[in-house]
Design brief:
The complex is a heterodimer of chains A (474) and B (238). In chain A, 42% of the residues lie in helices and 19% in strands. Chain A is of the alpha+beta class. The chains are: A alpha+beta (474), B alpha+beta (238). The structure holds iron/sulfur cluster (2 copies) and FE2/S2 (inorganic) cluster.
């Protein structure tokens, strides 16, 4: 008789999802699935709206990373206007994205994931969250919170204190950074850098004791995809798409977002609302690829900033070249924060950042536009079709979490197979399965769920549909 | 012209005959919330925000069109009026499709301001979610009927100040909506001079400048007043 274990909802991720673990007769894990059970229909209800509103609408998809949608949407809008935006606007948008990467990665690393390895996988779930972390290691927790605040303030200084306001608009941005803003950022950079370095040092020390996790948390071959700059350097906003394989070979390079339908396919499975994108030339599901921090760090030739490049060398040495373990997402996230801070430092010294020429005006010059940007979680595509008046006819959004869908399923299955044996299922085992998902920092919806506050419901379901046992975690 | 004396909220007020209670209150520094009222154009008393209580009269009267009479005792802010005003705003929100968070007028919207003023934190009426159209065919402006509250300010400002009479109200009751020309796309209405006065007059985000995004709408109300003064008082400077 087959049994099914359901983890619903998955905690400490953004949104609502559920994991089912299927056991065979011997009580061994047969397969595991990561379901996204929410359906939000954003693409549908954008239809009929003026395309200029898209930045504002799509920014609402997510309360954690509105900036990512804002930027992808603005870039798509640029295409519809058929303009090249002023150089200052380009730099300002970059600055905002770097602030976003910093705050989002800090949230994922410090608040959502570090309780697992700092407090212990099997520790009391009621305390295994950011509050427990504050109690156990107040300095680290506080530094993490302040680092996130730094990133958020960078965004606020640009977006005039309105996180959701459509500051990035088709054609550029609404306003430059004020001299006070520059001064604030300059003052607070050193502390933020010190925090990342401290986190990097302690994470590296911890890694020695996490060899099983590194080995079992989604350690497999796949492609990696992301944007890289002209010379293959790390990118987060511009550049072109690159695919590399698990050995670090470049599979495809210089791909344009406009052609995404040529190289990306989107499969649909009836048990999840999330689509399954794959690399078309390899087909489905062999075209599995990962996006996000791990992918970006794997595909780039270098960061182009001294400290991040030093860390990159060490990262590659520790991973043995290409990091194929999804556990390295956490490590990659820290290095990306460092790189973001270094780039922020360069940008605020650029005189363009306070230029008043930040917005190009134009009418509807193209009826279709595709924009791409790197969200903290990975590559984000927006694709709009409009009529001659700029009213949206069709929208397609390819989000990072979707692109990691295949990899997340594989990760869950791998962890479940390793940690769940026999019929006794401990909370700690289930937490590891969830942690595998958390490594990807999936963002399933628009809502922030406070850490540790979501109840966990586990069901053991027999093949006839009867519930054999049930565990609640409140 | 004779002068009438009356009491508004226990304050004795004197006003010329023919003035409205709204004007008299304004001169006395007493605030009465309004929505469809717009200085410089005719009054229609469509929204019922400005309702006041007059002692001895058994129904509520709109201050924007009710003229002052001798010795009346007016109350502008009784619990009953507060409740009615709140209900008016709630009904307006339930009637259209107001998604403030992505609206061009967010933070600069008279409907939103009134919602705050009357303390509306939710609406007690079920939302209608009507299907309404968006017309962005005009090269400079757009109208999103989802946000229209049928105050007819655009109709009046266009007809009475600009003299173009592009706008009108079509249908009746719950089906009523604002049309341009003979229910044509705005871009096809030759009468439109693209002056933009309707953008300045519209209290919500229903009529807007194209290309503006969330919370970006600005209005030049002083322009409307200037035009009225220029015409009526021959004041040609602003
Ligand atoms: S018009 Fe005013 S009330 Fe309506 S959605 Fe816009 S801001 Fe909100
Ligand atoms: S479009 Fe604006 S001004 Fe015209 S009736 Fe509607 S809300 Fe009033
Ligand atoms: S302002 Fe008097 S009824 Fe609208």
């Amino acid at each position: 008789m087959t049994k099914k274990i359901v983890i619903d909802p998955v905690t400490r991720i953004e949104g609502h999802a559920k994991i089912s673990i299927y056991l065979n007769d011997a009580g061994e894990v047969d397969d595991a699935r990561f379901h996204v059970v929410e359906y939000r229909g954003f693409e549908k209800f954008c239809e009929g709206r003026p395309f200029t509103e898209m930045a504002g609408i799509t920014a609402r998809i997510c309360g954690i990373c509105p900036v990512s949608h804002l930027l992808a949407s603005a870039k798509t809008g640029d295409k519809i206007l058929a303009v090249t935006i002023p150089p200052a606007a380009d730099k300002l948008r970059r600055l905002m994205n770097l602030g976003q990467i910093t705050q989002s990665h800090a949230l994922s690393f410090f608040h959502l994931s570090s309780p697992d390895w700092l407090l212990g996988w099997d520790s009391d779930p009621a305390k295994r969250n950011v509050f427990g972390l504050i109690a156990a290691d107040p300095d680290l927790a506080r530094a993490g919170i302040r680092l996130r605040q730094f990133g958020q303030t960078v965004i606020e200084l640009l977006g005039a204190k309105k996180i959701h306001a459509a500051w990035a608009v088709p054609g550029g941005v609404r306003s430059p950074l004020s001299p006070e803003g520059v001064a604030w950022i300059r003052d607070h950079l050193p502390e933020s850098r010190a925090t990342v370095k401290m986190a990097l040092e302690s994470f590296k020390k911890l890694m020695g004791s996490l060899t099983t996790e590194i080995d079992k948390f989604g350690h497999f071959s796949s492609l990696f995809m992301g944007l890289v700059g002209k010379n293959g350097e790390w990118e987060h906003y511009g550049g072109q798409i690159r695919f590399t394989d698990s050995e670090g070979n470049i599979v495809a390079d210089g791909l344009r977002e406009d052609d995404y339908q040529d190289y990306l396919g989107e499969a649909v499975e009836k048990w999840s609302y999330l689509k399954f994108p794959y690399y078309k030339p390899l087909g489905y599901p062999d075209g599995i690829y990962r996006v996000g921090p791990l992918a970006r760090v794997n595909i780039c030739s270098n960061f182009g900033t001294p400290e991040a490049d030093k860390e990159l060398q060490e990262f590659r040495a520790r991973a043995g070249g290409v990091a194929n373990s999804s556990f390295f997402y956490h490590y990659a996230r820290l290095i990306e924060i460092l790189a973001a801070l270094e780039r922020i430092e360069q940008l605020i010294d650029d005189p363009d950042i306070s230029s008043q020429r930040v917005r190009a005006n134009a009418g509807i010059n193209q009826l279709e536009g595709i924009g791409v940007s790197e969200a903290p979680r990975g590559t984000l595509f927006h694709h709009y079709q409009v009529d001659e008046n700029g009213v949206i006819q069709k929208v397609n959004l390819i989000i990072a979490t979707g692109q990691n869908n295949l990899a997340m399923n594989k990760t869950v299955a791998q962890i479940a197979k390793h940690y769940i044996q026999g019929t006794e299922i401990t909370e700690g085992m289930l937490n590891r399965v969830e942690a595998g998902i958390r490594a990807f920092d999936p963002c399933l919806s628009c809502s922030t769920h406070a850490a540790g506050q979501m109840p966990l419901h586990v069901q053991l379901v027999g093949s006839d549909g009867s519930i054999l046992s049930e565990v609640y975690r409140n | 012209m004779s002068v009438k004396t009356l009491t508004i909220n226990n304050t004795p007020v004197a006003a010329e005959e023919g003035k409205t209670i709204l004007e008299a209150a304004k001169e006395a520094g007493i605030h009465i919330p309004t929505l469809c009222f717009l200085e410089g154009v005719s009054t229609v008393a469509a929204c019922r925000m400005c309702l006041v209580e007059i002692e001895g009269i058994n129904k509520l009267l709109p201050a924007c069109v009710t003229q002052v009479t001798e010795a009346i005792v007016v109350h502008t802010n009784t619990p009953k009026l507060q409740e009615y005003r709140r209900m008016v705003i709630e009904l307006l929100f339930a009637e259209g499709n107001h998604v403030c968070s992505i609206c061009v007028a967010n933070g600069n919207c008279e409907l939103q301001n009134l919602a705050i003023e009357v303390g509306m934190d939710h609406t007690r009426f079920p939302y209608r979610f009507p299907k309404r159209s968006v017309d962005v065919s005009h090269p400079q402006f757009g109208i999103d009927r989802n946000r229209c509250i049928l105050c007819t300010r655009c109709v009046r400002v266009c007809g009475e100040i600009e003299g173009a009479h592009v706008w009108d109200v079509a249908q009746r009751g719950a089906d009523a909506y604002i049309v341009s020309g003979l229910s044509q796309p705005w871009s096809e209405v030759e009468a439109c001079t693209s002056c933009g006065k309707c953008v300045d007059a519209c209290p919500t985000g229903a009529i807007f400048r194209k290309g503006t995004t969330t919370a970006e709408k600005q209005r030049d109300r002083a322009k409307l007043q200037f035009l009225v003064d220029a015409r009526e008082k021959h004041e040609w400077t602003r």
